[in-house]
Design goal:
Layout (H helix, E strand, L loop, with lengths): L2 H20 L6 E5 L3 E6 L8 E6 L3 E6 L8 E5 L8 H12 L19 H8 L5
Antiparallel strand pairs: 1-2, 2-3, 3-4, 4-5
Length: 130
């Protein structure tokens, strides 16, 4: 199996595990392994703008305001730390942001200029593959 297939299996399992911890049903999730590796979780409705939890293979997890499809999302808070934190850490981050906790809108370290290391991502996510 090639790196892209292994990465897709691992990412699918990881997104499923995070969604369960956060309380997002499967139909509220999406992920993609293409030129970049990304995931999306629609956060539960609440007063105010619609929020989403997004992940990228270069930045990790962020909570962002959903915008029109033609506009980029507006990041509210970014989860610093490892690129693939345990699902319970992501759930705690989301709960803190939804409770009004302060958030850092950008990663503390800039996104690497090198392309994603798909082999390393596949290894990191491998434990979540079915």
């Amino acid at each position: 199996m090639d790196d892209a297939a292994l990465l897709a299996l691992g990412l699918a399992g990881y997104v499923r595990a995070v969604a369960e911890e956060v309380g997002v049903p499967p139909e509220g999730t999406e992920f993609e392994v293409a030129d970049t590796t990304t995931a999306y979780l629609a956060l539960p409705e609440r007063p105010g703008p619609d929020l989403m939890l997004v992940w990228s293979g270069g930045h990790g997890w962020s909570v962002a305001v959903e915008t029109r499809p033609s506009e980029p999302p507006v990041t509210v808070a970014h989860l610093d730390g490892p690129l693939v934190p345990p699902p319970e850490v992501v759930a705690r981050f989301v709960a803190d942001v939804l409770a009004g906790g302060p958030g850092r809108p950008e990663p503390s370290a800039p996104e690497p200029s090198a392309p994603e290391d798909r082999r390393a991502l596949a290894r990191e996510l491998g434990g979540y593959a079915p």
